[in-house]
């Protein structure tokens, strides 16, 4: 028997395995080798999986990336195309109700088109309905609010409003004629969209809308803080066209109210503005028939929507 060969074989089988990178030498058993290599193999395999994304990134990473992509897409769509807007008050009843989510078409006025009489618009009331800049919001809170409002889960900012356009630049808007109707450029308007039982306005007013601005009112006139409440302030209650965020075209929630907002024909017979309609009081000048610095408060406070 070749005893030297046997000794040599035993020496090879009992030799310790080389230590893993950065580790201590291990005993020769299989279980010890497995335990010794476990941590650095796991690190190496995790790194390889991350580098191999998307094929080997794992379900968790794929889910995170997919969720991020969805959020970015929603934010882009709500910023440039269509944005959900949660109705916070009853100022637009019965057209819009508290809790409705309307879809605001942000492309409606992007290509040269202008808001028209009868349009339901969402606008930023800073400088018209809100004279003072709102206090700065915590950046984290602002980000959360923006993300939640982008999908209609949160009420809009305090300076965002939704109202109906009643007068555009150059229009003379007065209230009311002997039948109690609103008049635009001397033409009486039958406002079929008003909440049943509501009057066009309980207090008279007479206004000429400056060019590039809008006169807006809520459909629930007795519960709407709108242009009438700001007659005595800079701008006379009118809203700059460039503050309009978009046109409310659809109700997207709740399910039982999903529908498009029909365009009203109430203003179809209104003539274009001109000197034939007689003098009126421009905003910021002499008060109209209301006889003071505005026409009183119609409810709400802050953003009444």
Automatic annotation (TrEMBL):
GO cellular component: plasma membrane
GO biological process, any: signal peptide processing
Pfam families: Peptidase_S26
Compartments it resides in: Cell membrane; Membrane
CDD domains per the UniProt record, alphabetical: S26_SPase_I
NCBIfam families attached to this UniProt entry: sigpep_I_bact
Entry similarity comment: Belongs to the peptidase S26 family.
Protein name, UniProt field: Signal peptidase I
Organism name: Streptomyces mashuensis
Lineage: Bacteria, Bacillati, Actinomycetota, Actinomycetes, Kitasatosporales
